[in-house]
Amino acid sequence: MSIPLPNLDDRTYADLVEEARSLIPIESPEWTDHNPSDPGIVLIELLAWLTEMTLYRVNQVSDRNYEMFLKLLKDPDLQWKLPNDPVESEVRSAVIHEEIRLTIVALRQRYRAVTTEDFEQLILKDWEKASLIKRVKVLPQRNLESERKEAGNLGSGKKEAHSDISLVIVPVNNNLTKEQMNELKKWLDDRKLLTTRLHVVLPNYRKVNIEADLYLEDGADRNKVDRDAQIEIRTCFNPIESGTYWHGGGWPFGRNVYVSELYALLDKVSGVDYVDNVKLSTPDKTDENQSTTDILLEDDELVSVDKLTFIFKDRSGNVWK
Question: Which tens digit of pLDDT belongs to each residue from 269-281?
């Protein structure tokens, strides 16, 4: 809702004369002749007449004034101006209001990148190659390029860098080249703060192996349960399209993997009576001591399901062949 503009010329000639006369006893008590023939009263009436005209002009903004205001707000290279051809006042008014609307829309368009929301919108909506990118995670005060180099590209050497911002890009179908990442960084350089150092990187994917014993209901189709369980898990951990999980936006950056959630996820698969002996592991050599209960992720990491191993049993505990 727009703010109503005040009326700046609401005082009339009579109001101004009456206000000035009421101040005479206060400012000049010896002035007692207030008749119209008095020279002082004549001056008051003259000044009231001039003030009324000035107040009237205060509330009037000419087309040329609008033109000058718009030139100040618009790009000076456009050299916009009102048409010189004589046109009806309604047409000129329509042209001015349309230019005002377009100028306000242009001014509201995000250009500078200061906050994390600025970077996300510029990358996902305004960059000319935004269709190549599905997600972006902005990590302030992080230099992931340096951290990964020092930590063997595992992202475990976390350090705080006050003027650095790392942009973790999740491309569509993993088709973002090094040249395109440099192009994005160069495009953002013109929009970031002068002292900010940008780092554009791809996410680290933590490979996860999952094992579980699935006890099937009587009459359940083993092959269908296997297929549905695999789809359910891979959809949940998908970094791009996660279906009904995470509002379809993919596994959240840095979210830990918990065994308890896998129990709940597998238990709701059609044909599964209950789940037991769920184990988590990571095939990376550096994670040999990783707990099989939970897997902890860094801020720039996502999950990649490597192997799924299900052992199907009936309610008596016999393994299905």
Answer: 999 999 999 999 8
